[in-house]
Amino acid sequence: MQEKQQIHGLRPIIEAIESGKEISKIYFLKEGNGVLFNQLKRLAKQESINTSFVPEEKLFKLTKENHQGAVAVLSPVSYASLETILESTEMESNPIFLLLDGITDVGNYGAIIRTAECTGVTAIIISEKGSAPVNGVVIKSSAGAVFNMSLCKVNHLKDAIYLMQAYGISIIGASEKATETIYTTNLKKPLGLVMGSEDRGINPSILKIIDQTYKLPMLGKIASLNVSVACGATLYEAVRQRQQ
Asked: Which residues make beta-bridge pairs with 71?
């Protein structure tokens, strides 16, 4: 596992964000104030960076340097351009892309990345807002697979879906209202698999624009699966179909 890289001080953090550094999280002094402090707060909100307001003892645990009321943790991974990946991918090879809609649980995120890497997924696409950060829990639960997987961060998943459809990629997602099961769905083609959050599933606005929905058979009394388990079941059905 890579060591956490940190930036301390208000102006250095602002400059890091403006220069395009991937910030995983910013820890702010709970009672902090001032022009630069408030500028950084606004910038963090604008860029959808995860933040936490903590007592000074927490900041001193993170760094012994003069932190000026803020410590930023750099993301251990860099994000790839979806456009670049699509341009360089041979569609004849029937690639699989994974689109995560509102997955905020870091344990699930890491497990999904691990399964995606094991099943040959080309890239994982997440939205800038409402997605889990890549932190130590994600790295651990992915068993390091996060360092072997292309991650793409986009402004809006809907725009990513339209772009992928323009490349001939079929976008599918799970829905309890679907008539077909995953086992009767053709997965032997360029595929974009949308996985929704456990609390609300796939956003209705996204469901409207995808090409097809499917469902996983539920034989017990509980109505839904953990999202990482559902993702694994779907990806391995794709593997099974492609090996026939």
From this structure: 8, 27
CB 165 within 8 A of CB 194: no
Adjacent-strand bridge partners of 29: 54
pTM of model > 0.85: no
Residue 47 token pair? 């860029």
Could you report the per-residue pLDDT of 23-75, keeping only the tens digit for each? 888 999 999 999 999 999 999 998 888 899 999 999 988 888 889 999 998 88
| DSSP line for 120-183 | T--EEEEESSS-----HHHHHHTTTGGGGSEEEEES-HHHHHHHHHHTTPEEEEE-TT-SSBGG
With H, G, I as helix, E, B as strand and everything else as coil, classify residue 200.
coil
The structure tokens listed for 113 are: 């990345």
CA within 13 Å, CB half, 108: 20
Q: Which helix (H) or strand (E) holds 198?
A: none
